[in-house]
Amino acid sequence: MSKKKTKKSSENDLKSFKLNYLQFKVKVFLILKILTCNFYTERKFSLAKKIICPGIVGFTVISTTSKVPYSLMNTEIFTKTSNVLMIFGLSQIFSKVTAVSVYGKKIEKLVSWFGEVEEEELWSILAVSAGNRLQKTLFYAKMAIMCTSTLFFVTITLMASYYFMSDSLLFWTPFKSRNFEFFIQFFFLYLLIVFLIVVESLLLILGFFFVCIINVFLDAVRMLDDEACVRTSGGIMRKFYSQHLKILEKLCDLQEVFRGIQTCQVASNLLIIVGTLYMMQIYPHGFVNHIIFLNIVAQFFTICLFGEFIHSKTEQIFTALYLTRWYEMKKDDQMILLMMMKKTQKPVSLKIAGMYEINMQTFVSVMRLSFSFCALLYALD
């Protein structure tokens, strides 16, 4: 009776997730179409469409860079440093928007795959509650996106207001009217924060669902420790192997997307953190510097945390496979299990420039280096 209830509950979870995720996917695809300007199926001007949004962000980078000579003539350290920090920040947004435009199709395929995972036959055979995990993940992803969007909008509003009150213009415009220049600055800042929210939301979706899917796979592997399951489910190891290969293939796509986005982020984060820490020491009552610092650190912490999770979860697959009742399996199944263990000996890691791993150790190292550089700058001042 309890098994029937569990099965019925699992089916309800799957139906609920499928409906909710379908609505969610439509919104994500619409955002990707806007970023890549790909509203039609025709392949005409595909490259030109992809560079429209990066071109808009690139224009703001040029505008900010053009303002540097005017900022250097200003005696205020705040204006000079803010201008330089803005260039680094905009360069980071430019690299992220460019990466999403380039890897838009891969991101679409990954998002589609997340919705198809719950239909895998392997979960229903082993009575693994994939629907429940996926439904919770969708809820947490939506909450994270909502919190991130709110935080970014509050931050940019405070930044724009602070720059207006301190009479700091960070973008060059050909207009003479000071008020109109500030209006353009407000417009640019809000436009850029929308781009940043979109990219960060996509990264949150990818991170949340990959961790969830690996957890579902681990739940399925742990079922192989049950004697009854091993004896009654003959030939199931082929399905395990097929699912494992699919996860590894999608993780390779994720690595490629993250490599394009995070390489520039880590380099610019170091410079922005050093700059904001320096500004916080010079202007301890300037609240905008504290807010920028918290946003940058939180943003970097999140990506390092996802990298840590993916590394640790893929590492757990090897242990979970070893702890199964492999000694009670048929020889063919044992060989498949051995091949899977061979594949999982080296955990999957997100990497910067294909060399340096993104994990909590990276976060600590960058923060230490930032504080060291800041202390050096403060000593030389």
Describe this entry's structure for a reader.
It is a multi-pass membrane protein. Its main location: membrane. GO terms for molecular function: odorant binding; olfactory receptor activity. This protein has 381 residues and is mainly alpha-helical. The chain has one domain. It is 81% helix and 1% strand. The chain is built from 14 helices and 2 strands. The protein has a two-stranded antiparallel ribbon with strand order 1-2. The model has no long low-confidence stretch (mean pLDDT 83).
How are the SSEs placed, and which strands pair?
Elements: H1 2-36, H2 46-50, H3 52-66, H4 68-73, H5 77-102, H6 104-116, H7 121-126, H8 130-165, H9 178-222, H10 227-232, H11 236-282, H12 287-322, H13 331-343, E1 351-352, E2 356-357, H14 360-380
Antiparallel strand pairs: 1-2
GO molecular function: odorant binding; olfactory receptor activity
InterPro entries: 7tm6_olfct_rcpt
Pfam families: 7tm_6
Largest sheet: 2 strands, antiparallel
Number of strands: 2
Helix content bin: over 70%
What class would the helix/strand composition place it in? mainly alpha
Our Rg estimate from Cα atoms comes to 24 Å
Task: Please give a handful of descriptors for the protein shown.
381 residues, mainly alpha, two-stranded antiparallel ribbon, cell membrane, receptor, membrane, transducer, olfaction
Q: What's this, in brief?
A:
Helix content is 81%, strand content 1%. The chain has 381 residues and is mainly alpha-helical.
